[in-house]
Amino acid sequence: MAALSENVLTVNMLLSVFFLPGIYANSCDGRTPLVTITTPKPTAALSGSCLNVPCSFTAAPGSTVFDSSKETRGAWIRDGNDIYNINNGVSTNLVEITGNLSQKNCTSLFSDINKSQEGKYFLRIENGGHKGTACSDPLQITVE
Predict the structure, then answer these.
(1) Paired sense of beta strands 119-127 and 130-133, if any
(2) What would the pLDDT profile of 121-137 be if each residue is shown by its tens digit?
(3) 21-25 contacts: CB < 8 A, separation 24 or more?
(4) pTM (2 d.p.)
(5) Which end is more exposed in the chain, N or C (fewer Cβ atoms within 10 Å of the end residue's Cβ)?
(6) What is the structure's pLDDT at 63?
(7) Could you tell me the CA-to-CA distances from 62 to 1, 32, 126, 135 in Å, in that order?
(8) How many CB atoms lie within 10 A of CB 70?
């Protein structure tokens, strides 16, 4: 009986290591995240207010490298959309990236936020040949 308990414990630990909480599997669809963001967690706002979200990002080294001298575009893409397509960003009337993306500053201002905007937002960055989505660490906004 003790050996069985030990085996179950071993299997449980292995599953915990190899199948990390759904953060990578669910949001990244098995892809390696090429961008990671740093934002306050959790992020809450009052309905009807503006929400200023301090944000910075790191581009992982890959086949193409982030080059701050090239034009950098970014968008916050709401969960449920194709988070790998920058054209599926949120309405620019509701969110403005106020930080300098070429300096890896993605600070953003969400205007007149309401309950319907509650949810997960993923930052998509395009910089020359470097394209990446912060799929492993979305910005979670709750509205009260």
Answers:
(1) antiparallel
(2) 999 999 988 889 999 98
(3) 23/136, 23/137, 24/135, 24/136
(4) 0.76
(5) N
(6) 63
(7) 49, 10, 14, 16
(8) 12
- Give the residue, 85 or 141, on which the prediction is more confident: 141
| CB 141 within 8 Å of CB 110 | yes
Q: What is the rounded CA–CA span in Å between residue 129 and residue 3?
A: 53
User: What single-letter amino acid sits at 118?
Assistant: E
The Cα-based distances of 80 to 92, 96, 136 in angstroms read 18, 20, 15
- CA–CA dist 84, 99 (Å, integer): 21
Percent of the chain with pLDDT over 70: 78
Beta carbons within 8 Å of 36's beta carbon, 6+ residues apart: 57, 58, 60, 134, 136, 137
Query: Looking only at Cα atoms, what is the longest distance across the chain?
Result: 64
Phi, psi of 16, deg, nearest 5:
-65, -35
Burial tier of 1 (Cβ tally within 10 Å: 0-12, 13-18, 19+): exposed
